[in-house]
Amino acid sequence: MKRAVVLGILLGVPGWAGAQQGAPDLVAYGSRAGMEVTILSRQGIDSAAAEVRVAHTPENARAFCTLYVMDPSEACVTATLADVAGWVGDRIAGDCTAGVFTGLWGGRMRFLGRLPARSEFGAEWDFREEGSDTPLDGTTASGYGVVLDQFRSICPARLAEG
């Protein structure tokens, strides 16, 4: 466990370090402030059958309402819970060996390792939507940061190999 915490800190996995201090283990489902879900369980991390199960909790919704919407009301929390339930899945699953995974949006992604050079927008890793020949460019619009966070939750060692 000690090695996992050190690896989590080095890779910037906020939940791994925070879990030791009682903070929830989180992963991003979107790029806006507070767009995170709580990790419920991990299975087969860094394997050909890696899976992280998640839930969008009232606390996650409250963080989004407070940090992004600037409305911490129960009405905002209730509306956010209902909205997110309609489009965010309950797991991230993939084959870390092959570098393929399905994220919280349901789309299949492929990880092809480190880019030869950082992109204009700072992407260091080559993530592609299944069937695409073009890497995500590192912009918020491409979803790069969210995809990186989700891949890191199931295959952290692939990013440490770098």
Question: Any overview of this molecule?
Answer:
The chain is an alpha+beta fold. It has one domain. Helix content is 35%, strand content 23%. The protein is built from six helices and seven strands; from the N terminus they run ααβββααββββαα. It has helices at residues 2-11, 14-19, 58-69, 74-85, 144-154, 156-161; strands at 26-28, 36-43, 50-55, 91-95, 100-102, 108-114, 125-129. A seven-stranded antiparallel beta sheet has the order 1-2-3-4-5-6-7. α3 (58-69) crosses α4. The longest helix is centred in the middle third of the chain and has 12 residues, at 58-69. The chain is globular. Residues 1-20 have low confidence and may be disordered.
Fill in the keyword field for this structure.
single chain; 162 residues; alpha+beta; 7-stranded antiparallel beta sheet; 35% helix; globular
- Largest beta sheet: strand ordering: 1-2-3-4-5-6-7
The rough form would be described as globular
Helix content: 25-40%
Approximately what portion of the residues adopt beta-strand conformation?
15-25%
Structural class: alpha+beta
Provide the low-confidence segments as ranges: 1-20
Distance between the termini: 22 Å
C-alpha Rg, in Å? 16 Å
Query: What is the string of helix and strand elements?
Result: HHEEEHHEEEEHH
Number of domains: 1
What is the tally of helical segments?
A: 6
Quick overview:
Mean pLDDT is 88; it is low at 1-20.
Write the SSE topology.
Blueprint: H1 2-11, H2 14-19, E1 26-28, E2 36-43, E3 50-55, H3 58-69, H4 74-85, E4 91-95, E5 100-102, E6 108-114, E7 125-129, H5 144-154, H6 156-161
Antiparallel strand pairs: 1-2, 2-3, 3-4, 4-5, 5-6, 6-7
